[in-house]
Structure formats: C-alpha cells, structure tokens
Design brief:
The protein is of the alpha+beta class. It is 49% helix and 12% strand. Strands 1-3-2-4-5 form a five-stranded mixed β-sheet.
Length: 258
C-alpha cells in the first residue's frame, strides 16, 4: 500500500491514474526491498526463484495454492540496478493484479469452458492486440525503423509471447507505449469507454478518433481487472521477473511461470 501511495503522489498523471485503478486489486501484496549484504529470503533460494532473482531488478512471486503474493525489489544500494522507481513498481503491481486472472482465463480457453465470460473474452482480446502489435513490430523491423531499446525489449522482455509481460510493459514503458500507438487497433468495435480508459486516453493525448493497440491494451486490461473469474483449480506459482540486474538501463524483462 505504501509503494502504491508513493506512485500516486509522485508519478506522472498517467502513472498516478493507473495506480489508483490498481489499488483495490493489490491489497495484501507484500512489498519487500532488499539491499546489498542483506540476507536473501528463503523464497528466493529455490533453484527456480534464485535464477530469476540473480538477473532481476524486481521479482513478483505468486503462490496459486496459498494465494501469497510478494514483490521483491532491489534497493538503492544496487545503484543503476535498483528497482525503487515508479515504472518498476507499477510493472510488478500489474503482475499482481492480472497474473492469476489471466492464468485462469487461459486455463478455461484450454478446456473450452466459460468461453462467454467477460474474463475469457478480455483475455482473447488481449491476445488479438498482442498479435497485432507483433505484426507491426515485424513490419517496422524490416524497414529498420525500430529503436535499439525496442529491439532489446522484444528479445529480452518476451513481450509478444507472454500476455502478462505485454500488459506490464505496455502500460509502464514509454518506448513500448510509443510503439503500440503505431500498431493497428480494434477499439472501434467498443461502444463506449469506461472512465478509466477515457482518462488514460486523454492523459496520453489521444484524439477521440484514434484507434491503436495501446488503447486496445488499456481496454482489455480494464476488462480483465473488473471481470469476476469463476473459481478454478490452478496450481504452481507465477514468477514474473523484471530483468536488468547489472545493466546500465532497466529496459529488459522476462517471465517464468507454471
């Protein structure tokens, strides 16, 4: 709660509005800052989690069985590899808000059940938007019109293969957002926007007639957040890592999960 309040007070208007929207979905999430020389928690000592943490500036872990949700962040003592900034905090909080809902929705799609529920429809819209963005990326890559940061994000961030990373990077990374505004959108099929979607569109400076993948992503994420997901038996844990430890810029990311 303290980390979210900090973003609301110090973030850009876009970040502040997004943080307010996430507030009710991240209650109970533990936020742990680790400094150099500090004892690493037992949860980060398992083979899988230790490997992810070694390359991360921040790490989100969710135990689907117990419901425990924890965000680990490297503190100021790590210099350029620290994760105490609004972008990283929002990135991980988005994982906390949507990872389980997406995992459940994709499990339903796999089993062919609850296909008409809002959560499943929103997940399908998200995949459509992600695929559209991937096609735009390939087109721009052929024309050599992509920034080096965007190329790095594509190969290290898994942004076009994992919808969870597509959401978190798409709503927090300026390079990703600029790119998404060039990708085809389908939002003309949406009869109206919620106050949250309209607010973010206005803060980005979109016109009412603008149609692009960024708006589609905002719409799909909002629909996922507000959807009631039927109970489902899912096991294992979700581990989402914002990579960048030891790098000059925290522009890379990846995710592992089961």
């Amino acid at each position: 709660a303290q980390a979210l309040t900090h973003v609301i007070k110090t973030g850009t208007p876009f970040q502040s509005r997004l943080a307010k929207r996430l507030r009710s979905f991240v209650q109970g999430v533990r936020f742990v800052v680790l400094e150099k020389g500090q004892e690493v928690p037992e949860q980060l000592k398992t083979a899988k989690n230790a490997k992810a943490w070694d390359r991360s500036i921040a790490l989100y872990i969710e135990n689907y069985k117990t419901g425990e949700r924890v965000i680990y962040v490297r503190g100021a003592s790590f210099g350029n590899s620290q994760g105490i900034n609004n972008t990283t905090i929002l990135h991980e909080l988005l994982h906390a808000a949507v990872n389980r809902k997406l995992a459940t929705a994709f499990e339903y799609i796999k089993k062919g059940i609850y296909l008409n529920t809002p959560a499943v429809k929103a997940a399908q819209d998200l995949i459509r938007t992600m695929n559209s963005a991937a096609h735009t990326y390939e087109d721009l890559a052929k024309q050599k019109k992509l920034s080096m940061d965007m190329v790095a994000l594509r190969y290290d961030g898994d942004i076009f293969n994992d919808p969870r990373e597509f959401v978190s990077y798409g709503l927090t990374d300026p390079q990703m957002q600029s790119f998404l505004m060039q990708a085809h959108g389908y939002e003309e099929d949406t009869p109206f926007f919620s106050r949250f979607v309209s607010a973010l569109r206005d803060l980005i400076g979109m016109k009412d007639t603008d149609t692009n993948a960024l708006t589609d992503l905002i719409v799909a994420t909002d629909n996922i957040l507000k959807a009631n997901v039927p109970r489902a038996q899912i096991s294992g844990q979700s581990v989402s890592s914002m990579f960048g430890f030891g790098k000059d810029k925290d522009v890379t990311s990846s995710i592992t999960g089961e």
